[in-house]
Structures are given as structure tokens and as C-alpha cells.
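Session log. Operator J.P. requested a structure for one protein chain; no other inputs attached. Running the standard single-chain path with C-alpha cell output.
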Amino acid sequence: MVLTKTAQKSPKSSDYSAKHIQVLEGLEPVRKRPAMYIGSTDAIGLHESLREIIDNAVDEALAGFAKNIWITLNADGSATVIDDGRGIPVDIMPQYKKSALEIVMTKLHAGGKFGGSAYKISGGLHGVGSSVVNALSSFMWIEVKRNGKIYRQEYEKGIPKTSVKEVKSSNFSREAGSGSARQIDTGTVATFFPDKKIFSTVEFDFDTIKKAVRERAYLIPKLYFHLYDSREGKKNEVNYYFEGGITSLVEKLNENKGPLHEAIFILKKEGDVEIEVSMQYNNGYAENVQSYVNVINTVNGGTHLTGFRMALTRAINDYGKKIGSLKDNGDSIAGDDTKEGLSAVVFVKMPQDRIQFEGQTKGRLGNSEIQPIVQASVKEGLDVYFEENPSESRKILEKVYLAAKARLAAKAAKEAILRKGALEGSSLPGKLADCQEKDPSVSELYLVEGDSAAGTAKGGRDRKFQAILPIGGKILNTERARLDKIIEHEELKNVIIALGMGIGETIKFEKLRYHRIIIMTDADVDGEHIETLLLTFFYRQYIAQPPLYKLQRGKDIKYAYSDEEKEQVLKQMKNGNANISIQRYKGLGEMNKDQLWDTTMNPVNRILKKVNIEDAEEADAVFTMLMGDEVPPRKQFIQSNARTATLDI
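Structure written below.
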């Protein structure tokens, strides 16, 4: 473990004043081109607005002042964020003859994040967060508590409607769930109404906000987050507090995965850059590595993640040679070998004005100087850990050696297939009934349970753009299998070949032959199981929803996809005197080709469920629990949810 002194603190409350606020430009362009500032005006942009206000409160915690953050989704459609930090300065800025609070809320690039004195590190939209959110709100108000007084200002579409004035009583108590925030000595409360004329939706999603809050709680240890949903019919509350910071996150990622050792934690400071890394290997095969800069999730990695990977590979190779496990004749571990079963978090904190992101969404860190800093820090930390923990270090080496052997075996298996040209798509599976269309953007691949149903689907499909591939029963559980076993499995090999983009480290997404992959299984427990096995194999795809019932009155035919829908259809059809026949479908094979086309394959009538990975951490935990080796968590899940399950018995 490498420990260093904590970062230098920002100005104390009494020193944090108008002189720390700098202004770069006005606010006028925001409402004209809102997507330039928040990425989009859909649900993503809406939630980005709330995250910006939350991150202003987080900045106070990063600076060493705030200990609590309260977030409330109010019944009137607004959102409120409260912190117990220093409170935004309210004294007059001489060059503008206005309060610092008003300047922060109405001018772009105005705040303590510029000039380097008020905040050493921060998240958010480069300091434009508060003013941008204000400009895109139909109404917003800010309240500041500092120096034993309460100050307030109100705005409409970013324009002040009142001056910054001292008020006798606080509006803290008006916000649902903020009772405990009323007693704070200093702090800021911000409430805003997203403008319906700007955003396509103004309804906040509790789960999306919960994920963002949980992420920040892991990154900043000992900071309390209190999230409330006070909207009608959506009463909810969660509270987050983690003592262990990113180590707590790594341990959460490895929950139920059989961790091989205690989590390794590395902390190092180089100048004004602070690096935190936590990592832990488990018994599984999947890698889960997350990276952050300040509080921003760099989903596409960057120089900090590259530095971590290089250091990990070098440190393991050096230690293996040192203890004689690896020879000096070129025998070495590759970077991919270190990924198997690895959970890790790489967290870099650095001055806001030095961060260089690639792309507007901040998905990738581009600072070239960060790579060698992270690489040297992690290498030093791992060298010390390996030296001081030989037993755990050997477990890591054994894990990596097994991954290397599997990689070589998978390479051999894949090369054997490649020699036949199969994975490149030159020799398609015999079971595949391909479509005529060559444009992948309009082509669909149906993965159909069983040869019987596949035969019906082949007869009922539109041959121009719909391809059919039968899946013979319950396929390999890829949660418990390495790549070489996946390639050797006949059913999955056929899927890989049909997709045409290869697999593993040489995958080429641009060669994907179908842009819509549809899983079509029976509407029973076995069908759901096969669906889950295929979902474990895929990252993102579509699931076809076959009907449960066919209802017919004379020539009038309707289909129902649930018991509730069946009852509704029955009520509608009972207006006539004719008899109504009800057919319950147990499997796809019971339908004729016309029925299957009408209900499940016709783009005009069919119901498709799109499967997305919205919360990677939650999805990873669910697949581990459902498909992993550990039985007790799965048993507990089944027992806890048995009463809510709808079984087709």
C-alpha cells in the first residue's frame, strides 16, 4: 500500500469570498443551443442538469467542507439539492457591482473553479453547471446560509426576478425530505423546474439519479447522500454512506464472485494530481474495471486507465520472474491475461482547468502526462504489495497463468475455425436460413428455440430482411466458461459465425451482418431460461414477445400477450352474441406460419422488448447471481421473489 498526504485544502469559509469568483462570458447562448452545454435536451440532458447541481454540492465535499447532500424530487416536478458546505459567496463583486451569488447563477464560466483558488478539484460542466441549469429552467431559486444569515434569489429562464436579499426564514423546511437539513449552520439549497419548452421530458427517473448518487458516494468516502422521491405515487428514499471509498465499490463489484484476496488499495500524490486505485481478483472470468476523473465516469477510459493496465502487466511479469515462475527467455504474461476475473477502480483527482477530455461527453481522458504518473504510482504500489503479501500474490499469479493458458487454447481453437473461414462469415452455418438483404442496418436475425418453431418461423418470415437460426435447447452458460469453451460449443459457434464479426480481442463490430438480433423463445419457464442464457452471451439485443392467447369470434381474430390483456380483449369481444374461442399457446411450434408472422414477426404488429445495459454495475450483479457458481445468493433471490413470479405450470 502506498499512502501519501491528502491534497491541500481549499480556502476556509471565512476566506471564501467574491474575490474567488471569475467571469469569462455571458449566458445568452445557452437557451439558443442547449445541447452544446448539456449534450441533449432529452431525458439524458434532463438528468445531466440535476447531476450538475449535485456536483456543485459534491465539489464542496471534495474541498473538505460539506458532509451531507440532500436530493429531493418534489411533487410539483421540481428538484432540490441541499448541501452543508460553506454556501455560495453573496458579497458584492466590485467589477460587476452585483452579488457573487447572482454572477455565479447568471454568467457562464463564473465560479470558484476558475483561477484555481476556491476549488482544487471539481466535476461538472467545467464550472458552467449552475448558470446553464438556471438558463434552462422555467423557475429556479437559490438560498444560501452563511455568517448566521439566510440569503435568497429567484430566477425565471436564467433572469433574476429578485435581488439577492436577506430573508428571515428558510425555505429548507418547504422541501419534502429535507427536515434534517434545516439545522445546518452553513450551506446552499437549489431548487429548479426544468423548462418544458426546452426538454422533451421533464420527469426525473429515480433509478437513474440513484445510480449517479451511489457512484459519487463510493468515490467520496464519509459523505452522506440522502435521496428522496416525494412525487405522488412514487414515495421512495435511499441513503448512501461508504467508509471505504473505491475499495467499498470494488468489494461490491466482486460480491458473490469468490474474491481471491483482500482488495488492494493504492494512494499516491504527484504534485497536484492524486491517484487512487483499488483492485481485487475473483474466481470468475469477466473483467469489470471502472475509471473516473474527479467525479466524472470516463466510460471510454483514457490515459489513466492505460497507465493502470501497463503497470499491472509489468508488475505481475516482474514478480513472476523474481520468484522463478516466469523465465527470462521471453516467457511473459500479456495484458489480456491480467483481465480475467479482475475488478478494479482507477480514480484520478486533478485541477479542473487541466483536464483534457476527448469528446463532448467526457467519455475518455486525453491528458498524456497522466499515463506515466498512474503507471509509476500503480507499479510502485503493486511491487510493495507483492513483496509484503506473498501468499495472496501467488494466488494472483496462478489466476493470471490460468488465463494465459486459456488464451492460448482459445487462440488455437479460434485459428482452427479461422482456417476454415468460418468465423469471418465465408461459410455460414447449415442451419441458418439467411435473408436476401445485404444491408445489415435493415437485416434481422431471429434466434429461435427448437427446430420445430424455427421451421414455422422460416415459413412465416419475410425472406427479404429476416434470417432464422435455430437454437437447440439450453445452450452453454457463458458466465462459467472461457472463450475456448464458447467457441467449441456448436450452438454458440453457429451464432458467432452467423453474426460475422468474430469474437474476443479481434472482434470487428463493423462486420456485424444484422443490426437487430431477436431472441424468440416459448412463453414458458424453459423459454425464459434459454432467453437468460442467450442474454448472458450478448451485450445488447432484442427479445421477441410471442402471444399467450389467440381469441377468435367468427372472422375477428385478436392476440393477447398476458392474462390481463386477455381479459380486456374478452370484454371488447363480448359485445357480440357469437361464441368466442380461446387458444392458449404453450410453444411457438403450436402456431402455424401465418399466425407466427402476424403475432411475432410482422414489424407492424409484433412486440419487441429492447434490452439495454443502463446500470452496468446492477446488470453485472444480476448475471453473477443468476448464472454464477455461488448457489446461496441465487437460492435467496428465488425464495425472496417466489411470490411475485408468474409461472406457467
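Operator note: The chain has four domains: 13-240, 246-411, 421-547+585-612, 617-649.
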